[in-house]
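re: ur question from yesterday

yeah so i grabbed the chain u mentioned. its 154 aa long if i counted rite. heres the sequnce exactly as i have it in my notes:
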Amino acid sequence: MAKKKLNNQAVINAIALIVLGILFCIFRAGMMNVLLTIVGVVLIGLGIYDIVRKNYIPAVIEIILGIAVIVCGWTILDIALLVLGIGLVVYSVYEIVMIAKDFKKKGWMALIKPVITLIVGIFLIVAKWVLVDWIFIVIGVILIINGILALLGK
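ran it thru and got these structure tokens back, copy pasting raw so excuse formatting
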């Protein structure tokens, strides 16, 4: 099997994936600060661009959203993770109740998914940043693997 030759852009992309993956693994939830700031700055930049193009209403909305993301990003994220955790707990309890009604037919294996969902929901409510750290580590490892595979030409 012939290996395909990587061009400069492919090498740069692969290295960028590896670097980004390493940053995700090192900074974990701290990357949220960086990502939220980048999103806020991009929105403000788009707003300024729209002002130059004389699109005032979209410009004001983008600038306000950009400032809100930079100033309130963590609060919004906290609330979203809390709501997600509560939703997962409620959903998993519902699933467990439905399985319990017909337990003889469904058996113990049917409980695996709702129990895991319940645990994730509880973690999101009680220790959301620990879970977010693990999610960022997993994403970082996936990015590193993708970057290495891209460099190997696979």
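noticed a couple things. The mean pLDDT is 87. also Residues 56-101 form the longest helix (46 residues).
anyway ttyl
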